[in-house]
């Protein structure tokens, strides 16, 4: 038996990670100084030893961009999982208004967290007429 959506919320299963901001400085591999001097030609030198830092900065930017992509992808998976689990918990996976109800529940509840979104979705679903089968 899998965990119910409220247990998963309490276990922080759907929590997303913060994407780190763009990098400004990288430590010099030669002297360890973490200040760069940039000149008018956009060249970067270590403020400590004068090393040309272009290759180090380029590699740091590449690694950082890859990390950002990885976090964004992981966050997307978690937010898709939350949507799917909430829709399933509400029993409206095949309902034609599921995305409309999801939007309403999101608007009302997201400022108070995942649990409130689900509570609103369950409340709105309860108000649906139960004349259709196979939602
Ligand atoms: Zn240096």
Features:
135 residues, mainly alpha, 4% strand, binds zinc ion
How are the elements arranged and paired?
Layout lengths: L4 H6 L25 E3 L5 E3 L7 H37 L7 H12 L4 H13 L9
Antiparallel strand pairs: 1-2
Helix pairs in contact: 2-4, 3-4
Zinc ion binds next to loops.
Short description:
The chain is built from 4 helices and 2 strands. The protein is mainly α.
| Percent helix | 40-55%
Residue windows where pLDDT falls under 50 for at least 5 positions: none
Number of helices: 4
- Beta-strand content bin: under 5%
Please summarize the sheet with the most strands: 2 strands, antiparallel
> Which ligands accompany this protein?
zinc ion
Query: Which structural class matches the secondary elements?
Result: mainly alpha
Ends apart, CA distance between termini: 22 Å
* CA-based gyration radius: 24 Å
* Mean pLDDT across every amino acid position: 90
Order of helices and strands: HEEHHH
Q: How many beta-strand elements?
A: 2
Q: What kind of oligomer do you see?
A: single chain
Which strand order spans the largest sheet, edge to edge or round the barrel? 1-2
**Apparent shape:** rod-shaped
Description:
By secondary structure, the chain is mainly α. It has a domain of 55 residues. The chain is 50% helix and 4% strand. Bound molecules: zinc ion (ZN). Zinc ion binds next to loops.
């Amino acid at each position: 038996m899998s965990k119910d959506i409220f247990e998963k919320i309490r276990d922080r299963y759907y929590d997303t990670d913060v994407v780190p901001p763009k990098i400004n400085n990288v430590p010099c591999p030669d002297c360890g100084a973490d200040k760069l001097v940039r000149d008018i030609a956009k060249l970067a030198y270590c403020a400590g030893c004068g090393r040309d830092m272009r290759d180090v900065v380029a590699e740091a930017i590449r690694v950082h961009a890859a990390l950002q992509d990885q976090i964004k992808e992981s966050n997307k998976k978690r937010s898709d999982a939350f949507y799917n689990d909430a829709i399933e918990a509400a029993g409206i996976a095949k309902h034609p208004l599921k995305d409309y109800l999801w939007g309403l529940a999101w608007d009302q509840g997201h400022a108070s967290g995942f649990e409130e979104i689900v509570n609103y979705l369950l409340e709105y679903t309860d108000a649906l007429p139960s004349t259709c089968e196979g939602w």
